[in-house]
C-alpha cells in the first residue's frame, strides 16, 4: 500500500499588520471539508492540480499559476486532484483596508484568475509576510496587488460565479434564522435540531433546508465551522489550546483536534505555534 506524503504547513503572521496571515502547504490527500473564512482569502497554486468545490457552476479544476479569490463567508473546499499539490493561502482582514479588499474581491464573488502578473505579485506579498517586512512595505505590495487585479480584467482569466444575489425572501429567511444561528454559535452544549426548529416555528426538515439555503451548510456543520473560526482567532491571540477547546464547548482536546484538523488541515498545535 502506497504511503501518503505530506509536508507540515507553515503559518506566517505579520507583526506589523496582524490582520495579514499566510499559509504555505503541500498535500497529496483530501484534507479539507466544506468550510468558510471570515476574511477575504487569496489562494495561490504553486504545483500540482486541485479541485475547488462550492462554486455555483460545480467543481472547478485548478492548475499551477491560478489565483483563487474567496470572499468572507463563502462555503468552499479545495483538495488535491492527484499527486503532490503545493499551495499558499493569504488571509486579509477586511477591517484593515476596505478599499484594498474591495478592489481585490470586487463585486463578482469567487474568482479564479489565470494571470502571471497577479500570481507574481501575490507571491511578492506572501514573501513579504513570511519575512515579516515593515508595515509600509507590506502596504505597498498589497496596493500593487490591487492594481494587478484591476489590470487582470484585460488578460485571460476565468470568473467562477458564486451564489446569486440575495432576494428579499432570502434576506427575510436569514433574519428569521438569527436566533438559531446565535444559539448554534454560543450554546456550550449542542442544541437539538428539534429544539432549534421550534425556536423559529419550523419543522426539523424545514430548518435543515433553511439553514443550508442561507449559509450553505447544515446546522451541525455551520456550528462546527463557526467554532473553528473562533478557535483560530483565540489561538492567534495567544490562548492556550486546552483553554480554547474548553471555552468553545468541545468535549475534550481530542475532539477539538479532530474537528480543527478537518477544517484547517493542520493541528491546533501547528497553527498555534
UniProtKB/TrEMBL annotation:
What GO annotations for molecular function exist for this entry? DNA-binding transcription factor activity; sequence-specific DNA binding
Name the source organism.
Answer: Corynebacterium glyciniphilum AJ 3170
Q: What is the lineage of its organism?
A: Bacteria, Bacillati, Actinomycetota, Actinomycetes, Mycobacteriales
Which Pfam families does this chain map to? AraC_binding, HTH_18
Query: Which stretches make up the HTH araC/xylS-type domain?
Result: 175-273
Q: Which UniProt keywords apply?
A: Activator, DNA-binding, Transcription, Transcription regulation
Give the protein's recorded name. Answer: Transcriptional regulator, AraC-family
Query: PROSITE patterns, per this entry?
Result: HTH_ARAC_FAMILY_1, HTH_ARAC_FAMILY_2
User: Can you tell which superkingdom this protein's organism belongs to?
Assistant: Bacteria
Amino acid at each position: 500500500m502506497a504511503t501518503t506524503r505530506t509536508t507540515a504547513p507553515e503559518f506566517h503572521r505579520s507583526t506589523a499588520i496582524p490582520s495579514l496571515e499566510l499559509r504555505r502547504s503541500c498535500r497529496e490527500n483530501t484534507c479539507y471539508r466544506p468550510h468558510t473564512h471570515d476574511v477575504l482569502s487569496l489562494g495561490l497554486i504553486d504545483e500540482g492540480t486541485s479541485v475547488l468545490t462550492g462554486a455555483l457552476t460545480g467543481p472547478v479544476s485548478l492548475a499551477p499559476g491560478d489565483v483563487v479569490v474567496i470572499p468572507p463567508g463563502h462555503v468552499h473546499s479545495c483538495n488535491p486532484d492527484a499527486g503532490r499539490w503545493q499551495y499558499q493561502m493569504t488571509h486579509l482582514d477586511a477591517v484593515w483596508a476596505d478599499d484594498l479588499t474591495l478592489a481585490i474581491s470586487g463585486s463578482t464573488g469567487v474568482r479564479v484568475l489565470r494571470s502571471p502578473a497577479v500570481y507574481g505579485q501575490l507571491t511578492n506579498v506572501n514573501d513579504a509576510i513570511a519575512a515579516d517586512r515593515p508595515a509600509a512595505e507590506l502596504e505597498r505590495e498589497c496596493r500593487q496587488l490591487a492594481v494587478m487585479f484591476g489590470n487582470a480584467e484585460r488578460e485571460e482569466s476565468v470568473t467562477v460565479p458564486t451564489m446569486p444575489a440575495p432576494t428579499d425572501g432570502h434576506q427575510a429567511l436569514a433574519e428569521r434564522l438569527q436566533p438559531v444561528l446565535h444559539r448554534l454559535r454560543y450554546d456550550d452544549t449542542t442544541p437539538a435540531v428539534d429544539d432549534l426548529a421550534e425556536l423559529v416555528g419550523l419543522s426539523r426538515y424545514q430548518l435543515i433546508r433553511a439553514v443550508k439555503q442561507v449559509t450553505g451548510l447544515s446546522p451541525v456543520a455551520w456550528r462546527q465551522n463557526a467554532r473553528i473560526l473562533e478557535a483560530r482567532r483565540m489561538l492567534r491571540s495567544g490562548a492556550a489550546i486546552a483553554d480554547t477547546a474548553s471555552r468553545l464547548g468541545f468535549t475534550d482536546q481530542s475532539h477539538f483536534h479532530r474537528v480543527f484538523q478537518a477544517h484547517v488541515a493542520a493541528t491546533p498545535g501547528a497553527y498555534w505555534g
